[in-house]
Specification:
- The strands form two sheets. Strands 1-4 form a two-stranded antiparallel ribbon. Strands 2-3 form a two-stranded antiparallel sheet.
- The chain contains three helices and four strands, in the order ββββααα.
- The protein is α+β, with helices and mostly antiparallel strands.
- The radius of gyration is 21 Å and the shape is elongated.
- The protein folds into two domains: 3-51, no CATH class; 74-105, no CATH class.
């Protein structure tokens, strides 16, 4: 497992941002592996509560997906599967793209 370390000894507004100790984060093979790592990690060993602020963004975290169940007319599902086959993509991924496109257009 590849590992990357974070060193946050950078100046921030109003003071220094110094970690108590270096945080080593592995490269994850799955979302479940990443979730387990973060669930077991005690961030108080690395940061002071005052280091945290609302609205921080962590762009390198894997996006989470949630399993849902929807009922579709048989013919609609068949059409989506045919289209997905033509595009050589899994039909569920194609449905997801259609939903994203529809939400973005509104």
């Amino acid at each position: 497992m590849n590992k990357q370390s974070f060193s946050l000894n950078k100046a921030k507004k109003g003071g220094e941002f110094i970690m108590k100790k270096q945080l080593v984060v592995p490269k994850f093979k799955s979302e479940a592996e990443e979730a387990e790592f973060w669930a077991k990690l005690d961030l108080s060993q690395y940061f002071e509560p005052s280091d945290f602020k609302r609205g921080m963004v962590f762009p390198s975290l894997m996006k989470t997906k949630r399993l849902i169940s929807i009922r579709l007319p048989e013919q609609l599902l068949l059409k989506v599967k045919v289209e997905a086959s033509k595009l050589q993509v899994p039909y569920q991924r194609l449905i997801q793209k259609y939903i994203e496109r529809g939400v973005r257009s509104n």
